[in-house]
Specification:
By secondary structure, this protein is an alpha/beta fold. Helix content is 41%, strand content 19%. It is built from five helices and five strands. A five-stranded mixed β-sheet has the order 3-2-1-4-5. Strand 4 (87-93), helix 2 and strand 5 form a beta-alpha-beta unit. It is globular and about 40 Å long.
Length: 182
C-alpha cells in the first residue's frame, strides 16, 4: 500500500490578520460622550459584529468612577463574547475640543477610556479616528447622523441608538485601517 505525502497546510500565523493557530482577532470601536458610551466588538478579519450597545454613564458623584463602571460593563460584554486575549485594537472617535464644557468633558471621557483600555489590555493598539476619517473609510460622504445610522443598520437592522451606530461605524473603519496597515 502506497501512502501519499500529507497535503501542505498554510501557516496561518503568517497571515497578518490571523493570530497564531488561525484565531480570529477582535477590535473594539467606541463612541464616547460625557454621559453615554457606544461600543461595538467586531472580528477584524470578517467584520462580524459580536456585541454592541450603549452604556449610560451616571452623572451623580465621581465622574471618573462612573466612567470606570461603564468600562467594566463593556469589558464584561467583551469577555462574554470572546477571549479578551484576542483583542488587538481599540478605536476611539477623536474629540473636537472647543472651549465649551460639554466638549471638554467629552475629551476627558475619551482620555479616560483610552487609559482604561490600555490598563485592561496592555498589548493593544489604541487608534483615534476623526469623524471625517471614519466616515470616509466606510464610504459615508456627507455629515449628519442619518448616514452612519443607515450604514450601521445594514449590520444590525433593528438598531435605533445613535451612539451604538457610530461605534459600529468606528469599528468597521478600524477594521479597514488595521487591514491596510495604516
Amino acid at each position: 500500500m502506497t501512502v501519499s505525502p500529507p497535503v501542505p497546510t498554510p501557516i496561518l500565523q503568517d497571515d497578518p490578520l490571523v493570530g497564531a493557530g488561525g484565531v480570529h482577532t477582535v477590535i473594539i470601536g467606541l463612541d464616547a460622550s460625557p454621559l453615554r458610551i457606544g461600543y461595538a466588538v467586531m472580528i477584524l478579519q470578517t467584520g462580524e459584529l459580536l456585541a454592541s450597545g450603549t452604556m449610560h454613564v451616571s452623572n451623580v458623584g465621581d465622574d471618573l468612577r462612573n466612567r470606570q463602571a461603564a468600562w467594566r460593563h463593556i469589558m464584561e460584554e467583551v469577555n462574554r463574547v470572546t477571549d479578551s486575549s484576542h483583542i488587538v485594537c481599540v478605536g476611539l472617535e477623536e474629540a473636537y475640543v472647543r472651549f465649551k464644557r460639554q466638549a471638554i468633558l467629552g475629551a476627558l471621557t475619551i482620555g479616560n477610556l483610552e487609559a482604561f483600555a490600555l490598563r485592561s489590555y496592555p498589548w493593544i493598539l489604541v487608534h483615534r479616528l476623526q469623524p471625517t476619517e471614519w466616515r470616509r473609510l466606510i464610504g459615508i460622504k456627507q455629515g449628519g447622523k442619518e448616514a452612519p445610522m443607515a450604514y450601521a443598520q445594514t449590520i444590525l437592522p433593528d438598531l435605533d441608538d445613535q451612539d451604538e451606530a457610530d461605534a459600529i461605524c468606528i469599528a468597521r473603519a478600524l477594521c479597514i485601517v488595521v487591514d491596510s496597515g495604516a
